[in-house]
Amino acid sequence: MLLVLGTWISQSLSRTLLEESFVGRHEQWVTQHGRNYVDDAEKKRRLKIFMDNVEYIDKVNNQGNRTYRLSVNEFADLTNEEFIATHTGYKISTKPSSSPKKTFRYGNLSRIPMTMDWREKGAVTPIKSQGQYCGSCWAFSAVAAVEGIYQIKTGNLISLSEQQLVDCVVEGNSGCNGGGVVNYAFTYIIQNRGLATEENYPYEAMDGTCDQEKASINAARISEFVILPSNNELAILQAVATQPVSVSLDATGHDLQFYASGVFTGQCGTNLSHDVTAIGYGTSEDGTKYWLIKNSWGTNWGENGYMRIQRDSGAPEGTWIFQAMSHTSLEDSFAMRHEQWMAQHGRNYVDDVEKIRRFKIFKDNVKYIDKVNNEGNRTYKLSVNEFADLTNEEFIATGTGYKISNQPTSRKTTFRYGNLTEIPTTIDWRERGAVTPIKNQGTFASCWAFSAVAAMEGITQIRTGKLISLSEQQLVDCAVNGNHGCHTGWMDYAFAYIIQNQGLDTEENYPYLNMDGICDLEKASVKAASISAFDDVPSNNEGELLQAVAIQPVSVALEGYGPDFRFYSSGIFSGQCGTDLNHAATIIGYGTSDDGTDYWLLKNSWGMNWGENGYMRILRYSGTPEGLCGLAQKASFPVA
């Protein structure tokens, strides 16, 4: 009797402690996700659901017999039925779509890469969230596919408007309520002759009235869409090897609701309830083939918003069903591309004569970019960026700005890092917190100031642990000895000024104006960071340049003109260029690509729409002592 009573008390106490533990976890979860309940009764009901979900998640993870993990995410106080009702939104069309092509355009594709990740190729915008009470997954899936193919065809990655589809695609769709069909979204985009940007027509996670004025500003367009052959994973592979693809899947079940990482192989059927976008494929280390999908449930779900899901599952329909993909016409008129480009970059011309002249320049540049990319024989890609309506001469005059000094400077004869022997195989000072976000010199030749400031920001962070955005405008206005403000300059003279002034102000206090100004002595007297000296890297020696970059970011001069450099978009730049130094940038690292190509990592000052989000990988050890584009000729760095 006493033994039975003792056992009962022990079990009861254990259960009480377990419930208290769940209450504590729930309170932490509520705080983390900003959840508020209308009353105590609702809170108790949600706690019960939370407990059941957490017990299931812990049980699955502890079993350890799955190829994936679950986690207690923001959906943990929802039943699976509630989750499906609020976070999915696909519905099967009840009538035929508007004349998709009958012939699968990629059916003859034979050379298929072993892996594909369209994020690495710059064709995927950051993860978005459809919100808790809007079944708009169909809009996010369609938009992601259009964003992808538009970047592939034009080189421009633009975040497009899901809200426009929610508000304006009324045929066959129900906005946030009851879901929609991706095909109808594509049909609307074709009929509307394009889609607005997310910035211009932002997402509100609720139904709205179609804003015709915003909907008329088209940032990207498609000419048709294609439905993939059903139950054919080879066709799926051919399609995803070429572009991101809209897909539908069965999103019911707890495992998908709480998926956190790994290759998803959980049980699911073909009751299609959710739309996502396939943005790649690959094979895991244990040999499991997978599809890579982009979801619309925010970055706290899955692998930062993405999921790997089993490929070649053994079922003809696969783990999911592919629906359709968008396609841009190669015959889009140059005039339409120019209008889209003008809207994207906010370009206005003084009169029609100027517009006609700029259109001719734009067309010539786009033809060159398309030709280079279609040849496919370079280690890099070009894109139609904000410089596309400028001649090369105009670009040099406004986008560069380095000049070689004609005066001798007092330099140390001994290279301070010359004895460095332990050099990392790779370095990226961004990963070590020593690089501020990309900046933009605008239409003036002030690259020298941006290069010097980036190098100083780097060494300041390395020495103090504090990353401070410093003032380029102070150098433009005040470093007048040998420099010409917005009309060219030299990094060494910038460093000399900073030493003489005993420091440099912050960008916040002395902001960049994209124009020459008078030195503000009051602001210039505020010293946010200082240096004690500066050194030149010995000329024409990439080995010694490597030693310097292993220690800190380094200012360099290079030949920064020519169409390939101007329109560089991604990859390792190995294009033709000489040693006519006219531009300055900052080397913030180096590395080696998967195919064994050594490169320098360059921070530029042309904004984030140029290159790889403002950065460039450029060939290291090009075979000439001065380095590719002369970048090893005039390198220098500040000392703190």
Automatic annotation (TrEMBL):
Domain Cathepsin propeptide inhibitor: 26-83, 338-395
Pfam families: Inhibitor_I29 (PF08246), Peptidase_C1 (PF00112)
GO molecular function terms attached to this record: cysteine-type peptidase activity
Peptidase C1A papain C-terminal domain ranges (all copies): 112-330, 423-639
Entries under SUPFAM superfamilies matching the protein: Cysteine proteinases
PANTHER family listed in its UniProt record: CYSTEINE PROTEASE FAMILY C1-RELATED
Family affiliation: Belongs to the peptidase C1 family.
Name of the protein: Vignain
